[in-house]
Inverse folding.
């Protein structure tokens, strides 16, 4: 059974940093692209970014809203995905989901809430 | 960036009736080399993550009831629920994965009339 479990969310002050993790199981993690998607309270879905697989040189892409502040990485040996978030803004408050990139995003975690507030 | 626009924003349909949600992309998401539309549909219920329903514009994900169907090509797409069930109350999103940044529609809230 495919499982994705996010962790690391919490309350952080504006300008602060946070690192989210996503633990994967039930599939060959190294074969897949992995994405982060967020959802602000009561709002729609916003794609944050993607890391491709080893065959595609682990290339990353980011939404313009987070480029230069957020960084996605992965550790295939640990079947884990990471989102390093720096210079956080109040508008980054959201539930952050990791998702498996395939034809669309076929598996999602339950999400972890990040609240940026003073 | 490819802008995805859904219509309507909300929809109320009687149980057993047909529900139709439209999605328009600002540019074609049809990849000519494989003749595939890079378009997916998701269902999100309150407090849950999104669930993939349809990919390649018309292919149902495993386990998705056959009352859900997707159609369209190029820039215009439709999600149809042929006979609405109570458990279909949710917000529905279209998404293009033709290129990055991946983009979603704003969502359509589906309710029971």
């Amino acid at each position: 059974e495919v499982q994705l479990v996010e962790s690391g969310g919490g309350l952080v002050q504006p300008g602060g940093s946070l690192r989210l993790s996503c633990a994967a199981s039930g599939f060959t993690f190294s074969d897949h692209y992995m994405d982060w998607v967020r959802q602000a309270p009561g709002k729609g879905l916003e794609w944050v970014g993607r890391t491709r697989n080893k065959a595609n040189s682990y290339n990353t892409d980011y939404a313009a809203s987070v480029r230069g502040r957020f960084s996605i990485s992965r550790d295939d040996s640990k079947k884990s995905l990471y989102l390093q978030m720096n210079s956080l803004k109040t508008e980054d408050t959201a539930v952050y989901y990791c998702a498996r990139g395939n034809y669309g995003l076929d598996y999602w975690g339950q999400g972890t809430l990040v609240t940026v507030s003073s | 960036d490819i802008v995805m626009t859904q219509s309507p924003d909300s929809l109320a349909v009687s149980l057993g009736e047909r529900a139709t949600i439209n999605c328009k992309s600002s540019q074609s998401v049809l990849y000519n080399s494989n003749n595939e539309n890079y378009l997916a549909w998701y269902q999100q219920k309150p407090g849950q993550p999104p669930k993939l329903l349809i990919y390649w514009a018309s292919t149902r994900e495993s386990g998705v009831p056959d009352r859900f169907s997707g159609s369209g090509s190029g820039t215009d797409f439709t999600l149809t629920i042929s006979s609405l069930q109570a458990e279909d109350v949710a917000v529905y999103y279209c998404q293009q994965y033709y290129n990055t940044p991946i983009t979603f529609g704003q969502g359509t809230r589906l309710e029971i009339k």
User: Anything to note?
Assistant: Chain A touches chain B through 23 residues (CB under 8 Å). The mean pLDDT of chain A is 97.
